Amino acid sequence: MSPVLAGVLQLLALMVALALAYRPLGDYMAGVYSSPKHLRVEKWIYRAVGANPATEMRWPAYLRGVLGFSLVSVLFLYLMQRVQGSLPGSLGFASIDPDQAFNTAASFVSNTNWQSY
Predict the structure, then answer these.
(1) Is 88 exposed, middle or buried (0-12, 13-18, 19+ CB in 10 A)?
(2) Residue 48 in contact with residue 72, Cβ under 8 Å?
(3) Which residue ranges make up each domain of the chain?
(4) How confident is the model at residue 11 (pLDDT cuts 50, 70, 90)?
(5) According to the model, what pLDDT value does residue 76 have?
(6) Would you give the DSSP letter of residue 85?
(7) Cα separations in angstroms, 99 against 1, 16, 34, 85
(8) Which of 24, 34, 96, 116 could form a disulfide with 101 if both were Cys (CB 3.0 to 4.6 A apart)?
């Protein structure tokens, strides 16, 4: 099979998959985003950041949400880099030093992408 034919067939397969999936997935997403019901975990998160899901979010609640998510992200990325050597599928790489792990995690979360490899 030629590469051009393989590419065309792959494109057609993708278009068919999207055509079959857009209606059920779109209906599901519309139901999720427009439903007045909230899951229990969502209610906990709303309470933690001080947001009321029935009203528009004011800037203090938004700020708490962004800072809370950023803090959790930095801690998670730091932890993943520190235990990298003992994770399954680590390819034998050693864990990253604490200062380098924090630097990389903070740069990813702050979108500065300042890493040294």
Answers:
(1) exposed
(2) no
(3) 56-117
(4) very high
(5) 96
(6) G
(7) 51, 48, 44, 16
(8) 96
